[in-house]
Amino acid sequence: MSDANGTNGNGTNGTNPEKDLGASNLPGRRGDGGEEIRVQRGMFGANNGGDTSGYGGLVRSIRLPGPAARPYGGWFDEVADELEGALEEQGLVPENAIEKTIVDRDEITFHIDREHLLRVARTLRDDPALRFELCTGVSGVHYPQDKGRELHAVYHLRSITHNRLIRLEVSAPDSDPRVPSLVSVYPTNDWHERETYDFFGIVFEGHPALTRIMMPDDWQGFPQRKDYPLGGIAVEYKGAQIPAPDQRRSYS
Amino acid sequence: MTHASARETTEGTVYTVSGGDWDEVVQTAAKADDERIVVNMGPQHPSTHGVLRLILEIDGETVTEARCGIGYLHTGIEKNLEYRTWTQGTTFVTRMDYLTSFFNEAAYCLAVEKLLGIEDQIPDRATIIRVLLMELNRLSSHLVCIATGGMELGATTIMIYGFRDRELILDIYELITGLRMNHAFIRPGGLAQDLPPGAVDHIREFVKKMRKNLPEYDKLATGNPIFKARMQGVGHLDLAGSMALGATGPILRSAGLPHDLRKAQPYCGYETYDFDVPTTDTADAYGRFLIRLEEMRQSLAIVEQCLDRLQPGPVMVTDKKIAWPAQLALGPDGLGNSLDHIKKIMGTSMEALIHHFKLVTEGFRVPPGQAYAAVESPKGELGVHVVSDGGTRPYRVHYRDPSFTNLQAMAAMCEGGQVADVIVAVASIDPVMGGVDR
Amino acid sequence: MGLEEKLPSGFLLTTVEQAAGWVRKSSVFPATFGLACCAIEMMTTGAGRYDLARFGMEVFRGSPRQADLMIVAGRVSQKMAPVLRQVYDQMPNPKWVISMGVCASSGGMFNNYAIVQGVDHIVPVDIYLPGCPPRPEMLIDAILKLHQKIQSSKLGVNAEEAAREAEEAALKALPTIEMKGLLR
Q: How does it assemble (chain C) (predicted)?
């Protein structure tokens, strides 16, 4: 089963081979060399000694889809061109602002350098050819394996004018979890950024009132980080006890 | 911002919370020689749509400042999902916004299917039933909105009417999924089960009944002078405000923009259905009420179209590595694997047994990457951001719940208005705290 | 409370107990304590089809000071817990608590950092009602069982005696993990 839907390290992760054959000359292919997010040991990914398969020595690194090469396909090129052009007009070097561009599963992701996020977002909103008016908030992701870029903030921007959706991704190291706030560009991000701060500890610089929103004000820690335990308790039955969900034997 | 004083004990840090900076706020307010007072509404208040806390600064009868306190129903669902298989995830997401269960499930499943790359393999029948359930859900959600909104205005009759009609829809849910709420019926790859015998006739009967009942809301409320006086011009939020605050759904449409993801970015084959997106240009609570009423009519039309299109066929992808539950049947002890299937895997095929065991205990693997899927829930754009690390469990699931985003508009709608209108404005946003706090 | 608590144990007290129990059970005033999904089913119970008015308790009080039954309907988060306790403390005696649904009873499927694993950590619970969410019929059943309990509740010296007995029984009770047999 892990062979069919499983993963390998060379970047063509899990795509259907037959599909790939026909798609090899099409633009927008998934690139190699994305971030390593996990190392899987053994056959079934048993996490606490449950692997009896005899494949315990198997080590595979699991990577996210890597950067894509031009052309990206569809309207993706148009957006990328417009964005780069608009940034150049403002005297910025697009390569500095846009770290990489990923095209995966018909979605385009721009990895933005955090110093340039505010400028890029403003450009995306204001440029008539881009016009991404609606920000659907920010989603934090914690990749403890991605050294130096542990905390990611992911924004989805929707253009009602052009009927498009793109994704911006910004990363910050755990030691310096600062990301500029987008509240001045998209006021809707007010609560979203507070939520991401509450759960991941990403400090959104320039936010008008960055306080906890979901957890009680005196809560310690950031509960949705990967290093924060789920916090469940063992469940007692007659004559038996099963551990909390995060303590149980599991396969990933 | 003042911090609570803290001291270390053997039990951990102990905080002394004495109202925080609210002391200062109240003192400043007391010094000012006017009628300015700070009112704390909730988190347990009959008119706040659940455990919402409103902090209102009032000058006489006028609200000068309004703030929300949320998080009283924070359930940690997004974190819990990371410890369950992809299929089990539907059981959790259905409990987020508990009035729009099917939308939560559908959005989650669309995102997982995008990650798996099986969007085009979902059987037609499954997609049509998904649309059918979602549109019924839109009806029941709007009915609760109108019912509780009416109750908060003091119109108890409309509440009884709303819950009466919602019961009819809940009967259909129960017939199809076995549950009145929290169904976990839409699964990655299709549906848990096919429609039971008699369901189509039952729904047709319901559509007929509902077409008769819907005009009653018009008679009861639409032209009612008291109702109109309480709603018109209240909770005003114009188009620019809606866009800036990211408000979607009836709030955005009441400001005149016909933005509906079912038309803009069709999913589940919505482009093939014939329906209208109602708008008004009043940008107030009354406009949102009218939009909800009209959307219910449109939903009924879509439900009818779904029924006409239903053809016999599978409701789960054919890929046996994903399709679970494969063969479910209703037994005397509830829903479970069908006895025929168990007989087959136990008696005839060792491999099938192993496969079934692995699929159930371990689940299927999803290739690494991230995806965003959005559906038009009754409240607005419901988006799901899903990240996979190639494992059998989600790496991260984030819900962009429309209630959460829309509730931010509360301050803009209420400030400068009357205290009594705060309730109307909040009711017209239709926030469900299960969705806001997750 | 009133004079009835001062009565000596005996025939008179049991008669007053029965009268007081009958009066109390016939007009229970629930406080609106809707939290999550169960709150919707609680509202449904009060609405047309299930019609809680048949049992004299369709009026959900907005203020805890006028209520004597708290139906904790839904998951109780760590942030909500102090609020819940405060509402409970504001209710006048005698008061009862129904823990509606598995989340309120035991934390249910949300075994995590955010949810209190059972509302009995915060307030004493009289009736645990399983289900996710329980059907309105189940809530009505729980309410009727609570009515029976209220009918047979004790007063004055008898109440003290009953409390002592209950405490002794609880101290002697076997922990779940040491119990044998089927779950029932």
A: NDH-1 is composed of 14 different subunits. Subunits NuoB, C, D, E, F, and G constitute the peripheral sector of the complex.
